[in-house]
Amino acid sequence: MPPYEEEYSDENDLPPIRNIRLSKNPEEWSVSDTVKFLAQTSDCAHLASFIREDAIDGHAFLLLNYPTVKEYWRLKTETAINLCQHIESVRLAHIMQFS
């Protein structure tokens, strides 16, 4: 089973929300698990090297936010937003599945 399954919902003209189903609790992700998750995304796969270089495991991934990823990695606004959408989708799945 892949690390996540993804579907989009578009209600009330809001941006699409990624509803994902995780196969493992992200608090238990190793750096390798986090890299695999991001590498399988269509819009942020190229950022997986940052995750590996900075040894970001699942717990640290859940703590990332827009100002941190934008400033620390010097990402373009659109890229930082896309990454934060993935982080938020993991947070939501974590709450829904493992809390």
Note down, in words, how this protein is organized.
The chain has helices at residues 31-39, 48-53, 58-63, 66-72, 77-98, and strands at 4-9, 17-22. By secondary structure, the protein is an alpha+beta fold. A hairpin with a 7-residue loop joins strand 1 (4-9) and strand 2 (17-22). The mean pLDDT is 89.
Write a brief caption for the model.
51% of the residues lie in helices and 12% in strands. The protein has helices at residues 31-39, 48-53, 58-63, 66-72, 77-98, and strands at 4-9, 17-22.
Helix fraction, binned, reads: 40-55%
Task: Give the termini distance in whole angstroms.
Answer: 21 Å
- In DSSP terms (H or I, runs of 4 or more residues), the helix count works out at 5
Shape: globular
What is the oligomeric state here? single chain
The secondary-structure class comes to alpha+beta
Widest β-sheet, arrangement of strands: 1-2
Q: Give the overall average pLDDT.
A: 89
The helix-strand sequence is EEHHHHH
Largest sheet: 2 strands, antiparallel
How much of the sequence lies in strands comes to 5-15%
Radius of gyration: 13 Å
Q: Can you tell me the residue ranges where pLDDT is under 50 for at least 5 consecutive residues?
A: none
The counted number of beta strands is 2
